[in-house]
Amino acid sequence: MSWERDTSKVKHFISKNRSALLVKEWLKERLSLAGFSDMQLVTSPTGGIGTKIIIKVLRPGLVIGRRGAKIKRLSEEIEEEFGFENVKVHVYEVEEPELDPEIMAWQIERQLLRGIRYRRVAFWAIRVIRDAGAAGVEIVISGKLRTVRSAYEKFTSGVVLKSGEYAERLVRVAKRPVLTKMGIIGVKISIMPVSLQDYLAQLEASEKAGEAEEVIESGEGG
User: Fold this and answer.
1) Which of 129, 115, 114 is nearest to 189 (CA)?
2) Domains contained in the chain, number
């Protein structure tokens, strides 16, 4: 029956997403020194054996190793840990680390662990992100910041959309717990790389270019 096939597809989708999430969290901890940003898990659509894992990091060399020794071992560990077969890991360098919230949250963590004051770290991060061309950034640092009691502070610059369809499209968010001597400090960073006006302008230009191509194709066909 069709409903049985649909149910099977849903279960497969949920299982795949869960596996991807588990692998991502494992890699995030495993590759913390390399500046882990993101991961994509790709399995064969035809049900064949083999799993491709695409990883983005700040320092690819720390993942690949000399003559690919580390990346080979990483593939073997993923197979052992999660039961995948024939894992192939591909590593790419993050192109714009200053606009990547995972990378910047990691940079904030490193400085906090070095004992640098959280306000100084936050203002530094905002300056770096804005200098890279971001339309807006918001950093929230919470936990035992000054005394025994928990508190939080928000640092903002530019415009960061809070909700709605465009916020989901344009705002990149990362959260990171940092274990300090005072206790756990939570870091949340939201980056909006381009302004809404620029995004809409790009969208309109893209749509006009598509329409022009259609006109040219129809003219050629005539």
Assistant:
1) 129
2) 2
* C-alpha neighbours within 13 Å on the C-beta side of residue 27: 27
Nearest 5 degrees, angle CA 16-CA 17-CA 21? 120
53 strand-pairing partners: 41, 89
Contact call for residues 23 and 74 (beta carbons, < 8 A): no
Number of CB atoms found within 10 A of residue 184's CB: 12
DSSP letter assigned to residue 45: T
Question: For residues 155 and 13, what is the distance between their CA atoms, to the nearest angstrom?
Answer: 38
Take residue 162 and report the two structure tokens written for it: 């809070």
DSSP string of 174-193, one letter each residue = EEEEEEETTEEEEEEEEEE-
pLDDT per position as a tens digit, 141-188: 998 877 667 788 999 999 999 989 999 999 999 999 998 888 889 999
The CA distance from 122 to 111, in Å, is: 10
Q: What is the pLDDT of residue 18?
A: 78
Strands 87-93 and 136-143: unpaired
Inter-axis angle of helices 118-131 and 101-113, nearest 10: 150
What is the model's pTM?
Answer: 0.78
Domain that holds residue 190: 97-198
Asked if 212 and 173 touch (Cβ cutoff 8 Å), the reply is no
* 126 and 71 inside one domain: no
Checking phi first, is residue 147 left (phi over 0); if not, alpha (psi -120 to 50) or beta?
beta
Both 21 and 34 in one domain: the answer is: yes
